[in-house]
Design goal:
Layout (H helix, E strand, L loop, with lengths): L3 E4 L7 H7 L2 E2 L3 E3 L17 E3 L3 E5 L12 E5 L4 E9 L2 E2 L7 E9 L4 E9 L5 E10 L6 E11 L3 E10 L21 E10 L17 E4 L3 E11 L5 E10 L3 E7 L3 E10 L4 E12 H4 L2 H12 L4 H19 L1 E4 L2 H17 L25 H11 L3 H13 L1 H10 L30 H17 L2 H22 E4 L2 E4 L16 H24 L1 H11 L3 H13 L21 E2 L18 H5 L1 E2 L6 H7 L6 H14 L8 H10 L3 H12 L16 H15 L3 E3 L2 E3 L10 E8 L2 E8 L15 E10 L3 E5 L2 E5 L2 E7 L1 H4 L2
Parallel strand pairs: 24-25, 27-31
Antiparallel strand pairs: 1-9, 2-3, 3-4, 5-6, 7-8, 7-13, 9-10, 10-11, 11-12, 12-20, 13-19, 14-16, 15-18, 16-17, 17-20, 18-19, 21-28, 22-23, 26-27, 28-29, 29-30, 30-33, 31-32
Helix pairs in contact: 5-18, 5-19, 6-7, 6-9, 6-19, 7-9, 7-10, 9-10, 9-11, 10-11, 10-12, 10-13, 11-12, 11-13, 11-15, 15-17, 17-18, 17-19, 18-19
The protein binds beta-D-glucopyranose.
């Protein structure tokens, strides 16, 4: 399976999409892959760089404002642009246009974490220049975005002028016609200090004067220069420091220039035929929230870089990625397009995950401005499992972020009328509810259960009691309180009215099946966590109880509510209704809706959608997926068939779940059809909006479909279940799982093992090979049998896909 994503077509209409696909990130910093030199006039671009959780606020205006509507929104800030390198050849500015290119290639090395672009460009006078640019956002040094720019004169020599620009005059992108993007202009950064210096001149000391202009030098040795811009966000007052260290060797003249919000270093040089100029640019980004005084921090980080060059940084990057990939690798044989999509998605998750415990993965990660850099339930339900079962330290960091915004969630609970507990905002960066439309925002209370679910799954998979004591239990307890506050006992039942489930096409309903089912799970786990700490860490429990004023009686109430939780059931159809009223509505068959009227949210009033049975995304099916055993197998199957007919998959969070459940139900071919939609969603731009950023939850969903769906993985406490199914076109599927200190390698294939043929394609069995790569023996359940995995297990499993209806 190739780890290189590649395009050799230069298509101006695709450039903003490719800015997303080839972007580089490291969880702290993300840089869209715009051309260094800019584009021809009229080309659409979202030339953005972002720091995770670096935001400013803006007022939210409601013409008809009601009590508790959010008045302040948070939005990620497009930060100082360090990717601009302009090239002038014999005075002509290089701009790529179809007629002037001899060759063009872009690659993303997903194993090494490096993006490259190379091309041969012809000047108007017919001179030929070869340019290769490599870039990376370092995983080992989160503040660093590094670039290597190579330009060679082919055939004949040329006069080169190369300008490295640091641009602090940046604005966010907006589009009034799409509710998934911000509709208003946003320019929160103001430059405070701008410097451009030739030589090793960056002074870590006190801030330099506002401008320092025009220092020129001529040299034959390596020349260094630096650009620095310090800015501040208008409302939050966060500081940002961006320091760009530039170096190049060979004869040339450098000039520095600083303007009000832009700093430039220009190198002038003659290149003889065949000669190459190499410029290295190391851009250090620091923000006051993480780094304190930014100028000093930028200087310190720059100093720690020492003389490391691009190849040194690239080696570090490859080494860091290698370790992540080793734990997370997944491979599918026999289906290269899908395998490529899968690998792309997992690469995006690895490069997007923050490691600092104070930020999360936004819906578009750090690849674009869709959803304004907000974090949703997407992380806990779709992405966290990938990290929990491959690189659990990353899952831990994501969950710690939720703990870090608990105060915001508490404040939100009060706004919503609760006297205690925490209600997490539907979309947020720093803890404020940023959804202006509460029916599909704050009403999605299920996010509280989703967070609790991810907390417990992480604990179950790692046994990390310290995490429960430090953060997990408080998250479980505070969110458990929300259910008691918004739900009520009604006779023998506990019911939850006026909420919205995952399906945003049906809002404000009573007893959404998903919400009640997940709330029950969350309440049970809160009770379990309480008992766990009481037994194993009483001082931690006492500390939390004191801090949040927890009474013993509350835990009893959680238990009672969980036991009495009402889950709607329709006996006539033997399915789980989405909510109390859903099945009484008229059915709207998606098959009759033309492509140009999709997604429905962009073409129909919400009321026209919500009064009918039509779903944006998996809801009941997702509950059945996350909580195996919650309903009888027949109910699960019939529910799947029922909702499948009325789901539009207008949300990218849907296909993967339908894929995973089809696999669990034994229909590998159907699972495959949904999986094919999931795996290449962004690469093929199937939703038409990947320009605004990747669909990160969908990428986590693809992993869920592979491991929990086709792989049939399920944690069972001290054992794990593995029930693989393979679609006809796959020769094999392999993945790796981290579970309770073990590393388990799984391979399911239709072909015999080398050296001892067990079956061959067409004989109807699947060869399952499970290897314990690290850790103590563990029980494995498969096909109704139980094994003890000591080092290696190889057995034949029934090919359930062949017996599926
Ligand atoms: C989906 C939500 C999701 C959000 C961000 C919406 O279209 O309906 O479930 O959280 O996108 O990805």
């Amino acid at each position: 399976m190739s780890s290189i994503l590649k395009t050799t077509t230069f298509d101006p209409a695709r450039l903003s999409l490719e800015e997303t696909l080839f972007h580089t990130a490291n969880g702290y910093l993300g840089v869209r892959a715009a051309f260094e030199e800019g584009y021809a006039a009229g080309t659409t671009t979202v030339r953005g760089s972002y720091i995770n959780a670096f935001y400013d606020t803006h007022p939210i205006r409601h013409p008809e404002s009601l009590y508790g509507f959010p008045e302040t929104g948070e939005r990620i800030v497009a930060v100082t642009d360090a990717q601009t390198i302009e090239l002038y050849v014999d005075g002509e500015k290089m701009v790529l246009e179809p007629g002037r290119l001899e060759s063009f290639e872009r690659t993303l090395d997903m194993e090494a974490g490096i993006a490259r672009r190379s091309f041969v460009w012809n000047t108007a006078a017919g001179k030929r220049l070869e340019v290769t640019v490599s870039r990376l956002c370092s995983l080992a040094r989160p503040e660093l975005f590094a670039m290597e720019y190579r330009v060679a004169a082919l055939g004949e020599g040329a006069e080169i002028r190369l300008a490295c620009v640091l641009d602090g005059d940046v604005s966010n992108y907006h589009d009034e016609s799409d509710p998934r993007l911000s509709g208003s202009a946003f320019k929160p950064l103001e430059a405070l200090a701008v410097e451009a210096v030739v030589g090793d001149g960056f002074d870590v000391g006190p801030a330099a004067p506002r401008m320092q202009t025009a220092v020129a030098a001529t040299s034959t040795a390596t020349i260094r220069g630096s650009l620095y811009i310090e800015s501040r966000t208008k409302v939050t007052g966060f500081r940002l420091g961006v320091l760009s260290l530039v170096e190049s060797s060979g004869m040339g003249t450098w000039a520095a220039e600083a303007g009000p919000a832009e700093a430039r270093l220009e190198l002038s040089r003659s290149l003889s035929a065949g000669e190459e100029l190499v410029v290295l640019r190391k851009n250090v980004y620091v923000d006051s929230e993480r780094h304190g005084e930014v100028r000093a921090a930028a200087g310190r980080i720059a100093k720690a870089l020492g003389g490391i060059g691009f190849s040194g940084l690239a080696a570090e990057q490859a080494e860091t990625f290698r370790a992540y990939w080793e734990a997370a690798s997944v491979s599918v044989e026999g289906d290269e397009p899908v395998a490529e999509g899968l690998r792309f998605g997992l690469f995006q998750l690895l490069q997007s995950a923050p490691r600092d415990g104070r930020s999360n993965i936004a819906a578009k990660a750090l690849s674009g401005e869709g959803y304004e850099g907000h974090y949703f339930w997407d992380t806990e339900i779709y992405m966290a499992p990938f990290f929990t079962y491959t690189n659990p330290a990353l899952a831990r960091a994501l969950l710690l972020y939720r703990h870090s915004i608990l105060d915001g969630a508490r404040a939100h609970a009060r706004e919503m009328g609760q006297t205690r507990g925490a209600a997490f905002p539907w979309r947020t960066i720093a803890g404020r509810e940023c959804s202006a439309y509460y029916p599909s925002g704050s009403a999605q209370y299920h996010i509280n259960a989703d967070i609790a679910y991810a907390v417990w799954r992480y604990y179950e998979a790692t046994g990390d009691l310290a995490f429960i004591a430090e953060a997990g239990a408080e998250l479980l307890f505070e969110t458990a309180r929300t259910w008691l506050d918004i739900g009520h006992f009604d006779g023998s039942e506990f019911r939850i009215e006026s909420v919205t489930g995952p399906d945003e096409y049906t809002c404000l309903v009573d007893n959404n099946y998903y919400t009640n089912a997940m709330a029950r799970y969350a309440l049970e786990r809160a009770v379990e966590a309480h008992a766990l700490l009481r037994d194993r860490d009483p001082p931690a429990l006492a500390g939390i109880a004191l801090r949040i004023g927890l009474a013993e009686d509350e835990v009893v109430q959680w238990s009672r509510a969980a036991a009495a939780m009402y889950l709607p059931y329709d006996a006539a159809r033997d399915i789980s209704p989405q909510d109390d009223g859903f099945l009484r509505k008229a059915i709207w068959d998606p098959a009759g809706i033309p492509a140009e009227e999709r997604p429905l949210l962009l073409h129909f009033h919400h009321l026209a959608i919500s009064r009918r049975q039509i779903c944006k995304q998996a809801d009941v099916v997702l509950a059945h997926f996350l909580l195996p055993g919650i309903a009888a197998p027949g109910t699960v199957r019939k529910s799947y068939e029922y909702y499948e007919r009325i789901t539009t998959h207008d949300s990218s969070l849907s296909y993967a779940v339908f894929s995973a459940m089809a696999a669990r139900l034994g229909d590998a071919e159907k699972a495959y059809r949904y999986f094919a939609e999931t795996a290449r969603l962004d690469l093929d731009d199937r939703h038409g909006n990947a320009r605004d950023g990747i669909h990160a939850a969908n990428m986590g969903g693809a992993w869920l479909a592979i491991v929990f769906g086709f792989g049939g993985f399920q944690p069972l406490g001290d054992a794990v279940a593995l029930e693989p199914v393979l679609p006809a076109r796959w020769r094999s599927l392999s993945f790796r799982i981290a579970y309770r200190g073990r590393s388990i390698r799984v391979r399911a294939s239709r072909e015999g093992q080398s050296g001892g043929r067990l079956s061959k394609e067409g004989e109807g069995g699947i060869v399952v090979r499970i290897e314990l790569a690290a850790g103590n023996p563990i029980g494995i359940e498969s096909g109704g049998r139980r094994f003890l995995l000591v080092d290696l297990l190889v057995f034949m499993a029934q090919d359930r896909s062949r017996s599926a209806p």
